[in-house]
TrEMBL record:
Principal location class: membrane
Organism: Elaeis guineensis var. tenera (Oil palm)
Name of the protein: Chloride channel protein
Listed GO MF terms: voltage-gated chloride channel activity
A single Gene Ontology CC term: chloride channel complex
PROSITE patterns cross-referenced by the UniProt entry: CBS (PS51371)
Membrane protein topology class: Multi-pass membrane protein
Family in the record: Belongs to the chloride channel (TC 2.A.49) family.
Amino acid sequence: MLSNHIQNGIETARLVWSRLPNSEEAEAEEELFARRSNGGAGVESLDYEVIENYAYREEQALRGKLWLWYYVCLKWLFALLIGIGTGLAAVFINLAVENFSGWKYAATFSIIQHSYFAGFLVYIIFNLGLVISSVFIVTHFAPAAAGSGIPEIKGYLNGVDTHGILLFRTLIGKIFGSIGSVGGGLALGKEGPLVHTGACIASLLGQGGSTKYHLSSRWLRIFESDRDRRDLVTCGCAAGVAAAFRAPVGGVLFALEEVTSWWRSQLMWRVFFTSAVVAVVVRSAMSWCKSGKCGHFGSGGFIIWDISGGQEDYSFQELLPMAIIGVIGGLLGALFNQLTLYITNWRRKYLHKKGNRVKIIEVCLISLITSVISFGLPLFRKCSPCPNSEVNPGIECPRPPGTDGNFVNFYCSDDKEYNDLATIFFNTQDDAIRNLFSAKTFHEYSAQSLLTFLVMFYSLAVVTFGTAVPAGQFVPGIMIGSTYGRLVGMFVVKFYKKLNVEEGTYALLGAASFLGGSMRMTVSLCVIMVEITNNLKLLPLIMLVLLISKAVGDFFNNGLYEEQAQLRGIPLLESRSKQYMRTMTAKEACKNQKVVYFSRIVKVADIVSILRSNKHNGFPVVDHGQNGETLVIGLILRSHLLVLLQSKVDFQNSPFPCDIRGISNRHNFSDFVKPVSSKGVSIEEIHLTEEELELYLDLAPFLNPSPYIVPEDMSLAKVYNLFRQLGLRHIFVVPRASRVIGLITRKDLLIEENDDSAIMELQSTSVRSQQLDRRTMGRHVQLEHPLLDGILTQE
C-alpha cells in the first residue's frame, strides 16, 4: 500500500517536472511576451460585463440559496487564503534576503580583517551568484516576472490582460527572482514584486489552482468570470503592500488609489480583511524569529522604522525647508521617471531584442558596477571617531562586523572609528534606511558622504530599473529621498541652532517627497509612511511634502507606473476623459470602422472565414424582422465562437432556428470561460472537414442579447465614462431610436419583489398603468425579439 502511494507520488512529480518549460520554450515565451508588450499588439481586453446568454440564464435559474451561501463563504475563504499565502511569501522572501545578505556581509567582514582584496572578490562573487540566479529564472523560466509587475496588474484591473502575468510560473519566478536581485545588492526593492506576488496568488486561487501543473481542485473553480477574478486580484494587491510594509491600512488605500479602477463597499470589506490577515501572519513570523530561529534575520527584516523617539514638535520656521524638500522630491521624481522611460525604451528597442544572453550579460555588468561602487567608494572616505559613549549611552560604536546597525568600521585605522559611507553601503536597504531615519544621531553622516551616496545610488537605480530581474522602486525611492532629506536636515540644524530639529525627521519627509514625485500617490503613501514609522505626529508634514511633490511632478510628466504602462503598450483608461472628447460624438469616433457582423443562422464556413480574416473579439449578430429590415439581436464573442467550432455539437443541417431547450444538455456556462492564461483557443488550432464547413450554426442561444448601446450623437466623453465605469469591452453605436416603450426612473429600480403600495402611489398614472404589462413582457422575452425594441432611456 505504501509502495503504491510512493509510486503515485513519483509519477506525479515526473509529470509536473515534464511540464516545466525548458530554455527553448521559455525563449519562445519571452519572444511572445515581448511582442505583446511592445506596442500593445498582443494585449487583450477583459470581459467584465456579464454575458447574459441562454447558458448563463439557465445556470442562474438552477442556483438556489445554498449555492449563494457557498459562493459568499468561498469569497471570504479566498480572502483569508490570499492573506495567508501572501504573508507567507513575504516571510519567505524576507528571511531569504536577510540570510543571504547576512552571510555575504559576515564572510566579507571576516575576510577583510586579513585582506581587503580577497574580501572584495568574495563580495563580488556573492552578489554575482545571487543576481545570475535571478536573471536566469526570469529569462529561462518566467519572462513575465521581470520588473515590478504593478503596471501590468494595474492594466489588468483597468480591463487589459497582458499575457502571462498571473501564471503559476510567474509567481515562482517572482518569489525566487526577488530573492536573488535584492539579496545581490542591486539598487531595487522587493515591495513591487510582492504586489505582483499577491495578485498571482489571488488569481491562482480564483481559477482553482494551476491546471497545467495538476495543482487544482474543482471545488474551488467557481469564480468563472473576469469580474470575480478582478475582485480577488484587488485583494492580492492590497495584501502585497500590507506584507511589504507591514501597513494593512496602507495596503487597502493603495489598492483603492493606485491600482483598481472599480470599487464598492463589499470589496472594501474583503480587502480590509485580507490586509488584516497579512498583518497577523507577518507579526506572528516576526515573533517566532525573535527566538533566534531565523538565522541572520534581525531587526532589519520586515520594514518598520520606528522614529517615535525623535522630534516631537516643529515650528513654523521649519515649514519653508520642508516645502523645499517637497519641491526637490517633485523634480528628482519627475527626472527619475523620464530617465527610466528613455533608458527602458532604448533597452527594449535595441538591447533586449538580441536574446537572453545579452540580458544576462547586462545584469551581470550592472551587478559588477554596483559591487565596485559600494565596496570601493568607502575606501576613499576618511573614518570618523565614534560618539562619546557617556553622552550617548545607547549607541554601540562601532557595531560588531556582519550585524545590522549604525557605525560600520570599514578601512579604519582605529577600532573606535567608523566609516559613514560604509554605514549606508554595507547594509541591507532596510537597515540603511533605518540608519538614515535614526534620531539622536547628529553628525553621524557628513554632507560629502550623503551627496556621494545620493548621486551614485540615484544613477544605479535609474540604470537598474528595467533590467530582466524582478524589481521594485519603493525602497530605492525611500533611500534616495531620505538621503537628500537628511542633507536638508543638516542645513536646518546648522541654520536654526536653537530649535529641537532632528535630521531623521527630514530624512522621512525626503523619502515621502521622492515617492510622491515619482509614483504620484498621496493618501495611500501618506498612511504607509505613518504606519512604517510609527509616528502619527508627523502626519501633517508628510501630507504637506506629498502635495507639493505631486504637484511639481505632475507639471512635467505622468507617474512612474503610468509611464511604464504606456511604454509596455498597456492602454489604460484614466479616470477622466480628455477635453476634446466633449466636442466629438460616438459616430465620429467610429466613422472609419467597417462593421463585421453575423446573421443569426450562419454557415460554419463563413464563421471560419471571418475569424481568420479579422482580429475582432466581438461581433454584432443581426436578424431580419417581419418587415424585412435588419435588426440587431445581440453580441457574440470571438472566444464563444471558437468554443462552438471546437465542440461541433451545435452544428445543424438546416438554416432554421434551433430548439433552445436542448442547449443546457450540451453546454454550461463554464464551457465559455476564458482561461486565466489569456491564451484560449485560436482559429488555427481548430480543424474542420469539408462536410462540417457546409453545416449551419444558430447563434441566438449563445449571444449576449442585452449589450450596452449608445445613440450615434452621444458625446464621446459620456461614452468614455460609461465604458470605463462599467468595465465594458464593447459598446454598440446605433442610430437614434424612433420610439420609446417605457421610462425607467429611480423608483422603478427601488421596488422590491413584492410591490409596495406606498411607492406605487408616488408614480404617475401613465407609468403605473403600463408597469405590470412591462414586467410580464420582461419575464417572457424571446431571443427572436430584436434588441433595439428593448432600448430604455434612463432618466
